Amino acid sequence: MNAASDVLTAIVAGATRAPSMHNTQPWRFLVVPATDDNIDGALIEVRSDPTRALPVGDPTGWAARVACGAAVFGVRLGIAVRGHRAETHILPDPSEPELIARVRVGSRHPSTPVERELHAAIPRRRTNRYPFSEVTPDPDTVARLVPAARQEGAWLDVLKDPKRRATVAALVREAQDRMNADPAYRHEVSSWVREVDGSSDGVPRRAGGPSPAAYDLLAFRDYGSAARSPGRDFEPNPLVCVLGSDTDHAGSQVRVGMALYRVLLTATAAGLSSSMLSQPVELPDLRRRLRVALGHTGGWPQMVLRFGYGVRTPATPRRSVSEVLDIAPIRTS
Q1: Are strands 203-204 and 239-245 parallel, antiparallel or unpaired?
Q2: Side-chain half-sphere exposure of 193, counting CA atoms within 13 A
Q3: pLDDT tens by residue, 184-231
Q4: E strand or H helix at 79, and its extent?
Q5: How many CB atoms lie within 10 A of CB 9?
Q6: 276 pairs with which residues across the strands?
Q7: pTM higher than 0.85, yes or no?
Q8: Residue 50's closest CA among 96, 2, 93, 114?
Q9: Distance from CA of residue 48 to its chain's centroid?
């Protein structure tokens, strides 16, 4: 490899830290350098990987597009902190549905403090499925999350009213119960649970959090972890938000993925832990009810998010860059 390929590979390595349902990592990358000695003008393509699809949990490919959108945001950050603009084109070729985005390394441009802060948060960001502290997140910290979503063209509804939060939590519970009643769903989830350390994908059982209880406010997916002591509340007062978009076509879902990752990294940089509960978005009728409950009848909920102060948890594994990256010959035109 040459100097340019080394830097572009490092950018992709950072992007693979993006979140995905069950940590399936449903992406591939193609790097097309423009020169041997620098990254100017290079292209990075982000593609969905159909071999890592979830036919039961994600039959429409929504979750894969959101995850790949998050990876696109990771590519953008990697380019930005190396002093370049990232010129991003979403779904650039209708004849190639697996092509999520092309990101070109544009003109030189100094990175902003926010870009550097978010990029530095990438190694610390992980889904935390354990109980959070009873300390309520600082209002100024919470206030940073809403414009982070807006900057990527999405909206973030912070559920300050306990009644609204309880309504959304009830929909999460109903969705989880319905899906968990499906043997095919349970089998698909269990196929992504990893019993021992050393695997490169999926959810290690130790990172799955305690098994959910019927009286918990928020119903997490059950990754088969140990049960908690009977009668003990998971957490009494979580901060719950809903991320959404004004439209719901494939391109919108990719952009939601970028917004999701910006929000999660913003939270991480501010010292918050986070987790995602997409179950009511995965069932069309419950998604419609969630829209009504939020009052966003003209918008589309895309993810329920939970934030708080949590103990440090292990990062989920990632495949090596060599497994997800192809490097093309230098582009001559």
Answers
A1: unpaired
A2: 17
A3: 999 999 999 998 777 899 998 888 877 767 767 788 888 876 666 665
A4: helix 62-80
A5: 16
A6: 305
A7: yes
A8: 96
A9: 14
